[in-house]
Amino acid sequence: MSKKRITLKDISKELNLAPSTISRALKDHPGISAKTKKIVKEKVDELGFTPDFIASSFRNKKTRSIGVIVPKINIHFHSLVISGIEECAYRSGYNVTIFQSQDSYKREKEIIKILHNKMVEGIIVCLAMETNNYDHFKKLEKLKVPLVFYDRIPDDLEVNKVAINDFDSAFKATEHLIKIGCRRIAHIAGLQSTGIFRARANGYLAALKKYNLPIEPGLLLETKELSYAEGVACAKNFLAQPELPDGIFCANDYTAVSVVQIFNKAHIKIPQELAVVGFSNYPISEIIEPHLSTINDRAFQMGQSATKLLISQIEEENQDIIKSQSIILKTELIIRDSSRR
Question: Could you read off the pLDDT of 107-127 as tens digits, one per residue?
Fold first, then answer.
């Protein structure tokens, strides 16, 4: 037989106090005396009373809960973003529910429905790779559900967003390779239908153009997921070319690590014969030999900023005055042995 849940009415009968008085005492209301608070706390502890937060949420129309949709938790960037979200949410008294879209448009739409049914007060999301239709987010906007995007942002929607300047970051990485003497620079790119990876490829191309270096189609290879295996395939492709690149900028660190390993096995000296720069500053960038130069994309700070922005939207009393806000975080080029000449 299940144990009966202790309620405020039970405490009220035990102490001969009004339920409202007990409720205020539990919330440390200044209008309740210290003596009454002490009596209430002792009785609550004795009977094992716990507040019914769900019922309270329905009464107040506040769940103090936010939803988060990430493509894949096992990618270091997203796990750092989640850490930033959870830390900021915890400090502000919010609970976090996390879902993975697995880069599926269909799954992303289903998660949005689930989160809305859970009555979360706002949602933080990084778009799935497959998403190019934003109707499910437009519905949330009509319902005035606060929404903040991070990293991968819808191209044609006025939305709250937190991101980095991927174009400038890629330009900076490629320019670094040029300034250390590289003249035949390759790029392992992410899926070009995704805005951030298109911006990184464009930053790479702009740097080559600025310094009057040739743009060779065979030196820009597009991948689907920027996986380690795809990086290996790209590295082998470069090795098979009649003339080897002397610099490679990769759109993430996984592919950059595979390049370092494949060229090491081929006895190509790094960085003397080939300099390599990655993107995201994953922990493996300091484990691989030589240590990998990379872009620090401020993932933890991105999570914090997205959460602060979302909570400010949630707690804004007049939802009609909410305007789309954009926060662009500065990145940092970290120069390590893979490109230090």
Answer: 999 999 999 888 899 999 999
Per the CB < 8 A criterion, the answer to whether 236 and 262 are in contact is yes
In angstroms, the CA 295 to CA 148 distance is 24
Q: What is the mean pLDDT of the chain?
A: 91
107 phi and psi, to 5 degrees?
-65, -40
Q: Convert the pLDDT of each residue in 322-333 to its tens digit.
A: 568 999 999 999
Radius of gyration of the chain (CA): 26
Cβ count near 189 (within 10 Å) = 25
* DSSP per-residue letters across 1-21: -PPPPP-HHHHHHHHT--HHH
Residue 104 CB coordination number (10 Å): 16
> Of the candidates 267, 259, 246, which has an alpha carbon nearest to the alpha carbon of residue 292?
259
What kind and span of H or E run contains 139? helix 135-142
Classify strands 160-164 and 147-150 as parallel, antiparallel or unpaired.
parallel
User: Is there a contact between 280 and 63 (Cβ–Cβ < 8 Å)?
Assistant: no
Q: CB of 94 within 8 A of CB of 311?
A: yes
Domains and CATH numbers, the chain: 8-51 (1.10.260.40), 64-163+299-328 (3.40.50.2300), 166-297+334-339 (3.40.50.2300)
Give the three-state DSSP class for 278. Answer: coil
* DSSP letter for each residue of 149-181: EESS--TTS--EEEEE-HHHHHHHHHHHHHHTT
Cα separation, 279 vs 256, whole angstroms:
8
CB 278 within 8 A of CB 293: yes
Q: Give the residue from 132, 92, 260 showing the smallest Cα distance to 188.
A: 260
